[in-house]
Each structure stands twice: as C-alpha cells, then as structure tokens.
C-alpha cells in the first residue's frame, strides 16, 4: 500500500520526496484528504519538470503549487530540511500510525484506534489478532512480502499461468493486466488483472469470477482471499513454492464496459483524477463503467458507445496518452 517514492532520476526528486511524506501524514494521521491530494498534485507537477527548481517563487508559477508549498520549497532550499516534517517524524504516535497503516486492510481510522489502545508495533499487533479482521490478519502475516516490489518479469509469468487456466475454463475469457504493469513500470506494488467475456453484457454474471478464483486456487496460484464479490476479488498469489506472496486484484467487467474499465484500472490514480476533471469540463461524466454526457440539467444521459480507449479521449477532446504516458 505504500505509494512508490518519487523517481530518483528527476531533477526535483528531493522536493517530491518531502511532499509525498507530507501527503502520507495528511492521509494517515490528520486524515485530511484535501491536503493529501494537494501535496500529491504538487509532487506530480514537480516530478514532470525537466529542470531544477531554484526558488519557491519560481515553483509558485506552476499549476498546483501555492504559497504554502512555495514557502516549504524555500525552507528546504535554505536549510536542507523541513521543520514540519522533522516534527512529524519525531512524534512516536505519528510514526506508529504510519507503520500500522502499512498493513493491508488497516486504514487510518483503525490504525488510530489501535495506537490509542497502546498497540504501536507489529509484534504487539501480532499478540492482539483478536482486534483484526481476516483481511488485516493476512496483511500482517505477509507484511514483508506485500511491501516487496514485483519485478515485471514475474507478473508476465503469473499472467501466463492465469491465461492457461482461463483457457481451460472458457477460451473466450480475456485477461488484461492493468495498473503500473500496463503503464510499463519495471516493478509494481501488486497485480491488477481485468477479465471480461464477450457474452457478459451488463447483466450480472454471478459465477464467472468465483469460477476463475476457484480454478486459480486449485492450481495453487491463489493462496489467500481477502475479499470476493461478483465483480471484484482481492487476495494473494504465489508463482511457485518458495516464491514471494504477492497481492493480486481481479476485476470482472462487462464486455461493453471494458474500455472504461481498462482505462480506470490502468491509472495512475492521479491521471484518472485529471482525466475525469477534464471530462466534466467537456460536459461528460467518466468512471470505470461508462462515459456519459451531462446535460444542462446535470443529469447524466445514456452511456456513449466506446470501441477503444482512444474513443474515450476523443469524445472529451483530451489528447491521447499511451499507458506509459499516464504515470503521473
Ligand atoms: N485507482 C484509482 N484510484 C484509487 C485507486 C486505484 O483510480 N484510489 C486505479 C488507478 C490505479 C489502478 O486503479 O492505477 C490500480 O490501483 P493500484 O493501487 O494497484 O495502483 P498501481 O497499479 O497504479 O500502482 P502499484 O504499482 O502501487 O500497484
Ligand atoms: Mg497495482
Ligand atoms: Mn491494485
């Protein structure tokens, strides 16, 4: 669940680093999602700059960087650190909350209440499993594994295994690995698999996902289930005996919603936010299911017919970006 740190080879990497640390603090400890988004937006803007920022006032000219962040950049340039961040990091309660939120299934509110009950380490958490649900227990069990990045090659191999078993189940099922893998990253935090079937059109398809998960359990690939519904599986898998256990998400999408689903599930989350905002400005509402025009009444109309990812960009007049270009 830790978001990848800023790319180390960009000229403003150190600014991005402290902005992302502040973002984590706002999400996990303050629980201020607006500030979280603001810090992430600022980091994303800075990470895309080809040259080094040399002053706060220069940074302020950028879209997404205001007075407060400009001041922090000046402080960081002058002193090499940020007092606010030092204070945050030196507070042991903050540190404990941050640690516990790294367990899959533990959110900021749960972490807060555990710390209030005096649980501040993974060892203590392990002794109080009665306070955890199934997802959180598995998250704790695989704490180290789930924080290890997954090399691209391993995801490719897992995809091959899944494909083989899907073919045996039903040769018409299609699978696309999305997320950071589809954006071309060398390593990923988890595996995001999207499946669809030509005969699955909107109507509920009660058993497809359960059959898929069942088959992948039977062959030993899926080792844990965190949650399983009609369209969404969250769990864990292992390529072979002795391999690291990996987080695996599977979503089942109706065939006619495939391109909106693949766009959403490819991300990044920041890119999705920007694209959805652009869609609204162009008079459309975009989500993982459909693209719909929003009339003057504000009520969304019937979904637009989509035949490719590019169609979605074209409809809202947004310049097409390949998955590799969507990582900000
Ligand atoms: N997503 C989103 N908003 C969220 C969470 C997810 O739009 N709050 C979408 C975009 C993500 C995709 O789902 O790219 C997959 O989510 P992940 O958390 O798996 O993120 P990534 O695959 O992008 O990165 P990682 O390598 O950390 O898994
Ligand atoms: Mg992912
Ligand atoms: Mn995921």
TrEMBL record:
The keyword Cytoplasm applies. SMART domains: HhH1 (SM00278), POLXc (SM00483). It catalyses: DNA(n) + a 2'-deoxyribonucleoside 5'-triphosphate = DNA(n+1) + diphosphate; 2'-deoxyribonucleotide-(2'-deoxyribose 5'-phosphate)-2'-deoxyribonucleotide-DNA = a 3'-end 2'-deoxyribonucleotide-(2,3-dehydro-2,3-deoxyribose 5'-phosphate)-DNA + a 5'-end 5'-phospho-2'-deoxyribonucleoside-DNA + H(+); a 5'-end 2'-deoxyribose-2'-deoxyribonucleotide-DNA = (2E,4S)-4-hydroxypenten-2-al-5-phosphate + a 5'-end 5'-phospho-2'-deoxyribonucleoside-DNA + H(+). Its main location: cytoplasm. It is an enzyme of class 2 (transferase). GO terms for biological process: base-excision repair; double-strand break repair via nonhomologous end joining. InterPro entries: DNA-dir_DNA_pol_X, DNA_pol_B_palm_palm, DNA_pol_lambd_fingers_domain, DNA_pol_lamdba_lyase_dom_sf, DNA_Pol_thumb_sf, DNA_pol_X, DNA_pol_X_beta-like, HHH_MUS81. One of its GO terms (cellular component) is nucleus. It holds the Pfam family DNA_pol_B_thumb. Residues 10-327 form the DNA-directed DNA polymerase X domain. Its cofactor is Mg(2+). Residues 57-76, 98-117 form the Helix-hairpin-helix DNA-binding motif class domain. The active site is at residue 72. Keywords: Cytoplasm, DNA damage, DNA repair, DNA replication, DNA synthesis, DNA-binding, DNA-directed DNA polymerase, Lyase, Magnesium, Metal-binding, Methylation, Nucleotidyltransferase, Nucleus, Sodium, Transferase, Ubl conjugation. Belongs to the DNA polymerase type-X family. DNA polymerase that functions in several pathways of DNA repair. Involved in base excision repair (BER) responsible for repair of lesions that give rise to abasic (AP) sites in DNA. Also contributes to DNA double-strand break repair by non-homologous end joining and homologous recombination. Has both template-dependent and template-independent (terminal transferase) DNA polymerase activities. Has also a 5'-deoxyribose-5-phosphate lyase (dRP lyase) activity. Repair polymerase that plays a key role in base-excision repair. During this process, the damaged base is excised by specific DNA glycosylases, the DNA backbone is nicked at the abasic site by an apurinic/apyrimidic (AP) endonuclease, and POLB removes 5'-deoxyribose-phosphate from the preincised AP site acting as a 5'-deoxyribose-phosphate lyase (5'-dRP lyase); through its DNA polymerase activity, it adds one nucleotide to the 3' end of the arising single-nucleotide gap. This is DNA polymerase. It comes from Zophobas morio. The lineage of its organism: Eukaryota, Metazoa, Ecdysozoa, Arthropoda, Hexapoda.
């Amino acid at each position: 669940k830790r978001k990848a740190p800023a790319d180390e080879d960009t000229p403003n990497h150190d600014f991005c680093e402290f902005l992302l640390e502040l973002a984590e603090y706002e999400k996990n400890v303050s629980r201020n999602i607006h500030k979280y988004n603001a810090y992430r937006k600022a980091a994303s803007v800075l990470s895309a700059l080809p040259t080094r920022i040399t002053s706060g006032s220069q940074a302020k000219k950028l879209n997404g960087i205001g007075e407060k962040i400009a001041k922090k950049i000046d402080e960081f340039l002058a002193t090499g650190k940020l007092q606010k961040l030092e204070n945050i990091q030196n507070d042991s309660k903050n540190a404990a909350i941050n640690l516990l939120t790294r367990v899959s299934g533990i959110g900021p509110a749960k972490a807060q209440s555990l710390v209030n009950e005096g649980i501040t380490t993974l060892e203590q958490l392990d002794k109080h499993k009665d306070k955890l649900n199934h997802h959180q227990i598995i998250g704790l069990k695989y704490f180290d594994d789930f924080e290890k990045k997954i090399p691209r090659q391993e995801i490719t191999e897992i995809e091959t295994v899944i494909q083989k078993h899907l073919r045996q189940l039903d040769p018409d099922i299609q699978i696309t690995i999305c997320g950071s893998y589809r954006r071309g990253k060398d390593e990923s935090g988890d595996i995001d698999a999207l499946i669809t079937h030509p005969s699955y059109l909107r109507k509920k398809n009660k058993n497809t996902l359960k059959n898929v998960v069942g088959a992948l359990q039977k062959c030993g690939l899926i080792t844990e289930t965190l949650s399983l519904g009609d369209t969404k599986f969250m769990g864990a898998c292992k390529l072979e005996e002795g391999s690291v256990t990996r987080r695996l998400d599977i979503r089942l999408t109706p065939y006619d919603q495939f391109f909106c689903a693949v766009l959403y599930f490819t991300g990044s989350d920041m890119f999705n936010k920007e694209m959805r905002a652009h869609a609204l400005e162009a008079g459309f509402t975009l989500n993982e299911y459909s693209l719909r025009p929003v009339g003057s009444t504000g009520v969304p109309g019937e979904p637009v017919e989509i035949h490719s990812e590019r169609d979605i960009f074209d409809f809202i007049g947004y310049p097409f970006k390949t998955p590799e270009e969507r990582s900000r």
